[in-house]
Structures are given as structure tokens and as C-alpha cells.
Amino acid sequence: MTDMQSQDDVFFVRQEMLAAAPPPTRVHGVWPWMRVNLFGSVGDTILTIVGVIVALWVVVPMIEWAFIHAVWNGSRDACAAQTDGACWAFVKANLGQYIYGRYPDPERWRVNLFFLLMAAGIVPLAIPAVPYKGFNLLYLYILFPLIAGFLLVGGVFGLPMVETPLWGGLFLTLVVSYVGMAMSLPMGIVLALGRRSKMPAVQVVCVFFIEFCRGVPLITVLFMAGILLPLFLPTGVNFDKLLRALLGLSFFAAAYMAEVVRGGLQAIPKGQFEGARSLGLGYWTMMRLIILPQAITIVIPGIVNTFIGLFKDTSLVYIISIFELLYTVRNSFSDPTWAASTVPTSGLVFAAVVFWIFCFGMSRYSKFTEDRLRVGYKR
Fold first, then answer.
1. Does residue 138 or residue 37 have the better pLDDT?
2. Which residues of 41-71 are buried (b: 16+ CB within 10 A; e: fewer)?
3. Cβ pair 187, 251 in contact under 8 A
4. What is the distance between the alpha carbons of residues 176 and 243, in angstroms, rounded to a whole number?
5. What domain count does the chain have?
6. pTM summary value
7. 11 has a pLDDT exceeding 70
8. Is 31 a domain residue?
């Protein structure tokens, strides 16, 4: 009886319901939002004030230079007279060269068609709702490279031949980036699996390849591929300089991609491997259906980070005289008809903005993919 009384003293059952509480107030308008997000505490207020001061100190002069005092039309004389603003007239006059390089003017429609064919493969692949992803990958990895090669090089179907030394600008940057990304990811997956293999010969070869490529600068790899490699080939045997650069850049990126993928493989719990084996799945079936999808999902930020680095590293192919976007922009500074102090800065800012647009686009799509593949995400 004493125990029951002590329990009654401890536990209490409410006899009536609580009154309904008002719903939480929503933040409406600019000032309530600023009060919550910018001035919610003393620290937030201080950071907001400092941020506004820095923004005014940096952003306002940039806006004045890029827009208010900029020269949008005219010649070299107009840019020379306006030393406080950008010379976008120079960029406008050389825009065709920045996009196509030295590709012949009458044949530039082939480059435009190349852009359309690339977009026709990448855009549906990037949209989750579009079906037939397998055919999409088949197009991007087999059909599109063949069509693009015949289209851009020519020499068949009545198309004049355009040698690769005439390629350049943004067009060539996209070609190098596309090939590097398309080759580095599958090669990196194979190298990561090989490094974790239990076969000593396979493991040693993969480890040596990865560590060698990661241990030397990319410029060295490109220099060896573009200049030294022909010295080791038999007499009369040679292949295109651009192809050598593509192979060198792809192998270099694959080594870094392998370590990214290996990190994802090591993050998979051991129970996933054991569960797959208990179902009687073979090694490659287990990797294809269970392990790799989880591992790649985990390392999406690392994969995209490698792609972004690869896209920016395409500017280093100038070391073997391949005229990508940045080299084409810098080469245009030597034009005597545009000799003005604001020309180099304007051209470099233009190149920086182009690189930023592509890199930021890849970064945002990476974030979208991470959110979509997150557990519990509502499609």
C-alpha cells in the first residue's frame, strides 16, 4: 500500500486539456527578415555591419569599373581615353576568336553544331525526369565522340579538313574538358577497384600509376605527352598533339579520381559486402548493383571538385602550344590596334567570368544531385 501511495505521489495525470496556443508568427517583409537573419544578436549585427562595409569597399568600385565607366563600343582610342573602366569593346571585337580560336570562318557552323550536339546529350542526362539514361550514356560515350570527330576534323562527306592546330578558344577548352571528364571517371573507378584488389600484380600496377601521376605536376605530364613522347616513338610514327594532351590530362585526372572513389568505397559498411555475398552475387555484380552506387553517391562532392579542377587545369595545355581560351585571350593582347592599358585586365576578367560560370554551374548541379540522392528526399 505504501508503494502504491508513493507512485501516486510521483505520477500526475492532467484532468483537463491545455488551451490552444497561437501559431508561430511568420516573418513577413524585409525588416522582420533582416531582424531575424542579420540583426538577431550583437555578433550578427557586428558581422552584418562589417560585411556591408567590405561590400561597399570592394563591390562599388568593381561595378563602376565594369559597367559605369566601361567602354562598350568604339575603338582603341575610346579605351585609351577612358582609363577608369573596362574595355568591353576589345572583348566584343575578339569574341569570335575567343570562342572558335583560329577555326576558319566559313566552317564555324560545324563548331556551333558541335555545341548543340553536346548540349543534346548533357542536358537530358542532367534532368532526372528524362528517361532512357542508358541510351543517353551510349550517345555521350560512343556516338557523340565519333560524330564530333568527323564533324570537326572533316575530310569526309565533303567537309574540308580543319587541322587541330587551328582549334582554340572556348571551343577547345570544352573539348579538352569533356574528354578529360568522360575518361577520368571510369578510369578512376577501375583504378580504385584495382588498388583495393587482392591480386598483388593488379594492386601494384594501380598503386604505381596513381602515386606516379599524383607525384608529378600536370605541366610535367603535358610536357612529356606533347614533347618528349614523340622522341620515344619509332621513326615515322606519330600522332596528333591534341590527342597526346587529351590522354595526358585524362590519365592525370584519373589518378585523383581513383583516390576520391576509393574514399567512397572505404566508407561503405562491411555488412553491405557480406550481405551481397550472402545473396550469391559475384564480385562485379555486387560492385555494379550495390557497392558502387552507394560509394559514388557519398563522394559526389569530391568527384565534382575533381571535375572543376580539371576544367580549370585545361588552361595549362598552352605549354605544348594548344590555344585554349585563356591562351587565346592573352595572345590577343599583342594586337597593336588595341594597345591600351585597360585591354589586358578586361580580357582576363572576361576569361575569369567564363570559367566561373562553368565551375559555378557544376557546383550547383552537384548540390542538386546531393539533395536528390539524400535518404528521405521526396522526388
1. 138
2. eeeeeeeeeeeeeeeeeeeeeeeebeeeebb
3. yes
4. 9
5. 1
6. 0.86
7. no
8. no
Instruction: List, in order, residues 6 or more apart from 102 with CB less than 8 Å away.
Output: 165, 166, 167, 168, 323
99-156 pLDDT, tens digit per residue, is 999 999 999 999 999 999 999 999 999 999 999 999 999 999 999 999 999 999 998 8
Which amino acid is located at 11 in the chain?
F
- Residue 333's CB is within 10 A of a number of other CB atoms, namely 16
- Burial zone of 103 (CB within 10 Å; 0-12 exposed, 13-18 middle, 19+ buried): buried
Neighbour count for residue 264 (Cβ, 10 Å): 21
CA distances (Å), origin 42, targets 27, 31, 78, 124, 182: 20, 17, 49, 48, 50
**How many Å apart are CA 351 and CA 98, to the nearest integer?**
9
Residue 379 has pLDDT above 50, yes or no: no
Q: What angle is formed at CA 180 by the lines to CA 264 and CA 322, rounded to 5 degrees?
A: 150
Nearest to 320, CA basis, from 214, 243, 253? 243
Question: What is the grid cell recorded at 56?
Answer: 561597399
Is residue 66 domain-resident? no
pLDDT tens-digit profile of 333-358?
A: 998 899 889 999 999 999 999 999 99
* Phi, psi dihedrals of residue 87, rounded to the nearest 5°: -110, 75
pLDDT at 27: 62
Radius of gyration of the chain (CA): 29
Q: Is the pLDDT of residue 26 over 70?
A: no
CATH of the domain at 176: 1.10.3720.10
**Averaged confidence pLDDT in the chain:** 89
**Class of residue 83 by CB neighbours under 10 A (exposed 0-12, middle 13-18, buried 19+):** exposed
Residue 283 lies in a domain: yes
CA dihedral 93, 98, 99, 104 (to 10 degrees): 80
Q: Which of 49-63, 106-120, 167-181, 365-379 has the lowest mean pLDDT?
A: 365-379
Give φ, ψ of 324 to 5 degrees. Answer: -75, -170
pLDDT of residue 172: 96
181: containing domain = 88-103+162-372
338 in Cβ contact with 78 (< 8 Å): no
**Does a structural domain hold residue 45?**
no
